[in-house]
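One-letter codes give the sequence; the fold follows as tokens. Both lines appear below.
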Amino acid sequence: MAEDSKGSGDGPAVGGAAPALRGGGLPLPGLKYWRLHRNLSQTELARRADLKDGYIARVESGRRGCNPETARLLADLLKVDLQDLRRNYDDAAQTGVPLRHTRPRIAYRHVHQAYLKILLDGAVGSAYAAMEEWEIEKRCEESTWVDVLEALGARKREITFLKEAFEARGVLQDPDLPEEVRSFLDAVLKSYPDLDIRLLAAARRREPSEEGREALTRAMRDLL
């Protein structure tokens, strides 16, 4: 049997979920497998999850466990079930034990973002507020200061539209609205203006021209 091949009945089954560590940290032996499967570096995955450098490396090496909330976020980013990240793919490959078929899933957050993008594109003609923070950060890093101002101006119009629409219809107070949708929309609204100020500050640090720095500074002051 698969359990016997581990040499101890106390260990997880080959391809099975690793037990939680003391203190509630989850070992994620399948994290490296799925990260590589999605063609992501440790640095890029950490950036998307807003984690410190080295965190992914420590979890993948087994030097630390991952808190459940972060583990679920990583599963969402990799578009798999959390249980898939907790399975040991290396042991299964070495012993020849066939793995259960892994069914990739569409993370609910990505579904919410897709619907929000459709809504915003139709209403105001842009959808920066539906982007992940790392996506809009990358967009701004690759843009001129003029394009950054245009993008964040569009984001302001989007947030204004959403606030007015939600308040007029009492969307966020609707008891029938699923809690995860409410949390997602609330997080989108609360990202303004802090995210925008941070993006402007980053663009200002990169900008070589005095004109651009002054324009970005004025835009930051307008949001303070």
